[in-house]
């Protein structure tokens, strides 16, 4: 039954039955109870509830872990919904949402946010309300001063969002005023101190929002005595974003040759070369990126430079190169399947069976599933065997259920394989598995179950 059918049937029940059902649900669900209160309350009641929840947060004596953190996030989000429902005035709303940011200390100290879920409440729901109310405020100087105050007291590293979101509600003139105040505070703090770096990161953030690349560069220079390659990249990116591709290229040319930075450097250099109309460099870089890592994305980037008409030729040449290689690459095999060269992928896998390492399950498992989907039963089989062997070799019992799943998959694939092409058949493989790992009783009992 789809949503519209459900809606119609609920209408037919009548208001009284729905009201009773909602009240019953509210007895056992904080979400339903808060929703009902928010829908039926006067604005003053919603504001009062928001204040009460802020007070409760400040006085709570608890520490939330595990599944409780998810519920805590829901509690915080419903609190913000109360604020939104209760306040229309931008100035009042802005003051109340900044009060939520000021409660970050008590919020983070009463929960384990190793998952980042509570931080996300600040980054998204709270930031959206800050933007919503900030956009309606008329006294921009007050808003700028409040943002600087909030950012300066960022003990838990979450308030950077108030600076990062500034362009969503402040006009350009106010953004410039914001950078001036941030820069002034950085200058009055000891050079190379944590506090100075914090203020300068704020300047850099607003500079990117303004697309003011020289200001961004100035902030980066103030933060670093010797600019590392990663900063060269971000400065180049800032100039490109500001429309100055020539200066961006100058910064990229300063980066020393280093494989660690090559991928990001080339990706940016390709954009710069295209914007400058430097087709020779664009072609050279696109080929280098493609040959470094074969993927649909790098292929698209290459074809955008050399022309879509060369697609088939490029893929054929790449397939030949991959098949001729001595070392197995799961990413190359996945690339072959993604461009419709499934038969080549299967041939490549079978030629490198001895190199399949089941420890790298994050790449091998998708490859096995792809081979299975394309009915390349033997290629899928040797991959699932590598995955099974890895589980049993590691002998970590909490992972045995994965190995059991792989072995059962091998049981189902075996009848599909008509030619084993030099690989041990399923019966022989299973016999070898029992010989090598017969004492892992936990695994075999799960497999038999």
Chain-averaged pLDDT: 94
Helix-strand category: mainly alpha
Shape: globular
Number of strands: 0
Helical region count? 26
State the order of secondary-structure elements, H for helix, E for strand.
Answer: HHHHHHHHHHHHHHHHHHHHHHHHHH
Largest sheet: none
Helix content: over 70%
Low-pLDDT parts are none
Strand content: under 5%
Distance between the termini: 36 Å
Oligomer: single chain
Q: What is the CA-based Rg, rounded?
A: 30 Å
Kindly describe this structure.
- This protein is mainly α and 449 residues long.
- The chain has a domain at 326-449.
- 74% of the residues lie in helices and 0% in strands.
- The protein has helices at residues 3-13, 15-26, 30-40, 43-59, 67-86, 90-102, 104-108, 117-134, 140-152, 160-164, 172-187, 194-210, 213-223, 229-241, 245-253, 259-276, 279-292, 296-306, 311-323, 330-338, 342-351, 361-373, 377-394, 400-413, 426-437, 441-448.
- Helix 2 packs across helix 3 (30-40) and helix 14 (229-241) packs parallel to helix 16.
- The longest helix has 20 residues, at 67-86.
- The two termini are 36 Å apart.
